[in-house]
Structure formats: C-alpha cells, structure tokens
Design a protein that fits this description.
The protein is an alpha/beta fold. The protein has a single domain, classed as TIM Barrel. It contains ten helices and twelve strands. Strands 1-4-5-6-7-10-11-12 form an eight-stranded parallel beta barrel, surrounded by six helices. Strand 7 and strand 8 form a beta hairpin. Helix 1 packs parallel to helix 2.
Length: 251
C-alpha cells in the first residue's frame, strides 16, 4: 500500500503566510520561510506554497521567496499562483520548486495542461481545483475562488487527468477554514475514478478528519494550513495517530 502524505499549505499574500475561512477574512500566520523550515523538520511529506493574490493582482509568483524556501527545506515543494506559461514554470523550477500548481490559467486555456505536461513531465504538473456547491452541483471557481465558471468539478477533474496532469489538488471552498472536516463525499467521487493522486484540501480540524479523508475519501494526501500554522495539531503526533489507525505513513 502506498503511504499517504501530510502536506502543510502556505497561502502567501504580500510576502506573508495568511489563512482565512471560506477563502475570506485572512489573518497573518507568520513568515513563510520560517514555517517551511519548521514543517520540513517536523516530518511533513511535502509543502504547497500558493501565492493567493498573484492571479487577481495580474502578476507573477514571488520568485525570490520561492528561492528562499527551496534553500531552506529538503522535501518536495509545489508552487502555485499566477502561472500561465511554459516560461513561468521554467522560472519556478529553476528557483527550486519541484512541482507547480495551476488553476485559473488551466480553466482559461485547458491546452496549457497538455503543453506543460509535454514540456516538463506530468509528475511536476498539479492542477488545483477550487470548488463550491452551487444550486445542487459542484462548480469550479477561479481567481482565488472569486469567479464561478461553467465547469462541473467532477468532469473537469477527469479532463485535466486526460490532458496530462500528474496530480489534482482539490479544495472545497465550502469546508475551507471551517475545521468541520474535509468534503469527504466529493473527494471520494474524484479519488475513486482518478488514476492520478488526489490531494484533499479544506476543512481539517481534527486528527480524525484525516483518517476519514484517507479511508472513506480515498485521498492520497491531506493538505491543511491553520491547524499547523497555529500549532493546534503537531505533524509528528498526527502521523503517529494515523499509523495507529491503520493509515500507512512515512514516520
């Protein structure tokens, strides 16, 4: 059985780590470089770094910050925010990122997923899907969750896999920051039909929530932010708890 992964997420705004609820009401959570170092030391399996206002501000991801984080850690590191071309990806990988995450640009130009997978290999292309339940359907949102699209989440997940994405980062905007648990049913639907890893994001509040998302939700990785940033759950304790509850972990 493949080991499951625990992934802290650093949402970056103006060079600082922030965290909100349902994608709004952001509060400061510390220096991203310092946090990255702590998580790597604690045994996080990977890190995700999302420059959450890059697309909205129509600017590129903060390359210098990516370089500083990469120099500080020794675990795989995914970067997203404002990425829309082969040149953007090349610059981030050269700055030390192991994988990149695209969302709004993939929706605007789905062929970009094919191009990036061909150029850099599927293993470093993550497609992030921000989804909200609207009028009885799961709908893809872009621009940091600000814009609903015409895309249905489950169909879009299948399409990006077919186009060459190596991984899906699925964030439920309905559960994000609520600490009431992941969107288990939707995660299970997507994980159950995908042939690529699915990272579940949004809603972690208790260690039991990770057990649920790895078992019932069939996720390959669990991503969380505030519970780690504000020291509500320690990664080593969480990983031991998961192992004791039958979830295979790298300790």
């Amino acid at each position: 059985m493949l080991t499951k992964r625990i992934i802290p997420c650093l949402d970056i705004k103006d060079g600082r780590t922030v965290k909100g609820t349902n994608f709004v009401n952001l509060r400061d959570a510390g220096d991203p470089v310092a946090l990255a170092a702590i998580y790597a030391e604690q045994g996080a399996d990977e890190l995700v770094f999302l420059d959450i206002t890059a697309t909205v501000d129509e600017r590129k991801t903060l390359i210098e910050l990516v370089r500083n984080v990469a120099h500080t850690i020794n675990i795989p590191f995914t970067v997203g925010g404002g990425i829309s071309s082969v040149a953007d990806v090349s610059a981030l990988l050269n700055a030390g990122a192991d994988k990149i995450s695209i969302n709004s640009s993939a929706v605007r130009n789905p062929q970009l997923v094919n191009e990036l997978a061909l150029e850099f290999g599927s293993q470093c292309i993550v497609v992030a899907i921000d989804t909200r339940y609207v009028n009885g359907e799961h709908i893809v949102h872009t621009y940091g969750g600000r814009r609903p699209t015409a895309l249905r989440t489950i169909a879009w997940a299948k399409e990006v896999e077919d186009r060459g994405a190596g991984e899906i980062l699925l964030t439920s905007m309905d559960t994000d920051g609520t600490k009431a648990g992941f969107a288990i049913k939707l995660t299970a639907q997507i994980s159950g039909s995908a042939n690529i890893p699915v990272i579940a994001s949004g809603g972690a509040g208790l260690m039991e929530h990770f057990v649920d998302v790895f078992t019932t939700g069939k996720a390959d990785a669990g991503l969380a932010a505030s519970i780690f940033h504000f020291k509500e759950i320690d990664i080593p304790v969480l990983k031991r708890y998961l192992q004791e509850n039958g979830v295979e972990m790298r300790l």
